[in-house]
Write a structure and sequence with these properties.
This protein is of the alpha/beta class and 273 residues long. The protein has one domain: Rossmann fold (3-Layer(aba) Sandwich), CATH 3.40.50. Helices cover 42% and strands 11% of the residues. The chain is built from 14 helices and 5 strands. Strands 2-3-1-4-5 form a 5-stranded parallel sheet, sandwiched between helices. It is globular and about 50 Å long.
C-alpha cells in the first residue's frame, strides 16, 4: 500500500460523520475522501465478497484520486467545510461512508491496515435530523409512516435510513468492538460534543496521529459557532436535544420502549443531557 493506515469513519446519516471526517481531514498527514463507494468513480467498487487484492486496489486507487465530489469542494467553497493545509508526507488515508455498512467487517478481515471509527448518535436525534433535511427526507413523505423502515429513502441494501437500520448498525458496531477491540473505536456523538479534546485524542491516536495546531484550531473553532446549514461542520451542540421538542412524541416513546432491556438501551442513557 501507499500509506501506513486506513481509517473508515462510519455511521448512519445524520450521526456526525461529516464533522468527525473533517477532524481527521484537519490533520496535515491525512488524505481524506468523502463517501467513495457512493461516488461516480468508485460506485460499489468493493462489496462483501471482494478479495483482499480488490480491497487493496480500491484503497490504492482512492489514495491517488481527488475529484470535486471526493474532496467536497462545493462545501469548502460554501464555507460549510474549512480548507486545510496538507503535508507532502501524508501517510494516512481516511474516508467516511454512511452507506455500505455491511462491507466494514469483511474489509477489517482483509485489510490489516484498516481502523474503523464508528459513530452512534441517539436514535431519536438521528430520526429527527433526517426528517428536517429536505435533501434527504423526500417532500411529501410522512415521518409517522417512514421512521421505522425508511422506505422513502432506502433504495437497496447499501442504504441505512430509518430506525431499524439504526438498530442494525448499532448492533454491528458493538459486535465489531468485541471482534476487533484494538481496531474499532466506538464514538458516542453527544459525548464527543462535550469532550471534544479527549475524544479527538482517542480517535487520532487510533491511527497513530498526534493532535497538531491545525487540528486543535478546527476542533475548538467548530464548536464556537453554530451554522444552520444541514451540511455544515460548525456546530456548537446547542441543538443536541432539539429532538425532544421537535420529534413526534409517539415515535420517541416507541423507540424507548423497543430498546428497553436490550443492549442498545445504553445509547439512550449515555447520551442523556
Amino acid at each position: 500500500m501507499k500509506f501506513r493506515k486506513v481509517v473508515w469513519i462510519a455511521g448512519v446519516a445524520r450521526s456526525g460523520t461529516s464533522w468527525i471526517g473533517q477532524i481527521f481531514n484537519s490533520h496535515q498527514n491525512v488524505r481524506y475522501r468523502f463517501q467513495p463507494l457512493f461516488s461516480y468513480e468508485f460506485k460499489s467498487r468493493v462489496n462483501e465478497d471482494s478479495t483482499d487484492a480488490e480491497h487493496q486496489q480500491f484503497l490504492n486507487d482512492l489514495w491517488d484520486t481527488e475529484t470535486d465530489f471526493l474532496a467536497q469542494r462545493d462545501k469548502v467553497g460554501s464555507g460549510d467545510y474549512p480548507a486545510f493545509s496538507k503535508s507532502q508526507f501524508s501517510d494516512v488515508l481516511a474516508f467516511k461512508e454512511n452507506r455500505y455498512q455491511s462491507v466494514i467487517e469483511p474489509m477489517l478481515r482483509k485489510v490489516p491496515q484498516l481502523h474503523v471509527v464508528a459513530i452512534v448518535r441517539h436514535p431519536c436525534a438521528v430520526i429527527h435530523s433526517w426528517s428536517q433535511n429536505p435533501k434527504e427526507f423526500p417532500v411529501g413523505a410522512e415521518l409517522r409512516h417512514e421512521w421505522r423502515f425508511g422506505g422513502c429513502k432506502n433504495s437497496g441494501p447499501q442504504d441505512y435510513f430509518g430506525y431499524y437500520k439504526w438498530k442494525e448498525v448499532a448492533n454491528l458496531y458493538l459486535d465489531l468492538v468485541e471482534q476487533f477491540p484494538k481496531r474499532v473505536t466506538l464514538i458516542h456523538y453527544d459525548q464527543m460534543l462535550t469532550n471534544r479534546q479527549i475524544a479527538t485524542e482517542q480517535m487520532l491516536g487510533s491511527a497513530g496521529l498526534e493532535i497538531t495546531p491545525q487540528v486543535e484550531d478546527f476542533v475548538s473553532g467548530s464548536g464556537n459557532r453554530h451554522s444552520r446549514s444541514y451540511y455544515s461542520v460548525f456546530k456548537n451542540g446547542s441543538q443536541v436535544n432539539q429532538w425532544k421538542q421537535g420529534l413526534d412524541r409517539y415515535i420517541a416513546e416507541e423507540i424507548a420502549a423497543d430498546l428497553q432491556g436490550s443492549r442498545l438501551e445504553r445509547f439512550l442513557h449515555e447520551f442523556a443531557a
